Amino acid sequence: MTALMVNDATLAYEHALNRYFYATGVVLLIYDHLLTLQSEVRYIWTTDHTRALAWYLLVRYFALCANVTMFALSFVNFSVEVCITLNTVQNVLFALQELMIGTTLILRVLAMYSFDKRVMSVLAGAAIIVICLFIWTAVGSEPPHVYRTNLSGCYSISPNTRFVRADSYDYFVY
Question: What SS3 state is found at 6?
Fold first, then answer.
């Protein structure tokens, strides 16, 4: 396999493009929170405190706080060591968000089917498969390459083996 050389202009372009897409997502998330804040205060904050309410608030505001914080940190200059740590923290925060969203979706489906044991077992099996695939992809691959450039924030490039375990699927390529 040949090594890909990246020049400064390409790195700056990719860094800016990455931040633009990230900014778009964060702005839409904040916009959604502002649009629904009045209804949320009226219907959510004034009701009795239940586990469902606590879960709703955790999922909703964990994502907001994590994304706004990580986006704000992308404009600060850090050393390579701090960039590596922040990259790990960001990946953990994203994984926790995905876990909370997946749990919420599973609970919604279970509620629709009155917590039927058959549906519960199918969803539990699917969750176990997804978790195993996540662990297989994350643990067996090399970590992303984190760069500290003259640009603000950190920039990481994930190798192809991080996304697709291509070494295991070489026989599918024709």
Answer: coil
The DSSP result for 21-57, as a single string, is HHHHHHHHHHHHHHHHHHHHIIIIITS---HHHHHHH
On whether the CB atoms of residues 87 and 74 are closer than 8 A, the answer is: no
Query: In sequence order, what are the residues at sequence separation of 6 or more whose Cβ sits closer than 8 angstroms to the Cβ of residue 158?
Result: 144, 145
Does residue 71 carry a pLDDT above 90?
no
Listing DSSP states for 105-172 in one string gives HHHHHHHHTTT-HHHHHHHHHHHHHHHHHHHHHHHSSPPPEEE--SSSS-EEE--HHHHS-GGGSGGG
Cα dist from 125 to 102, 111, 119, 133, 156, whole Å: 13, 17, 10, 12, 34
* Per-residue pLDDT reduced to its tens digit, 147-169: 555 666 776 665 555 455 444 44
> pLDDT per residue over 30-42, tens digit each?
999 999 999 999 8
CA 130-132-135 angle, 5° bins = 110
Among candidate residues 129, 130, 141, the one with its CA nearest the CA of residue 167: 141
Please answer whether residues 152 and 72 qualify as being in contact, where contact means their C-beta atoms are separated by less than 8 angstroms: no
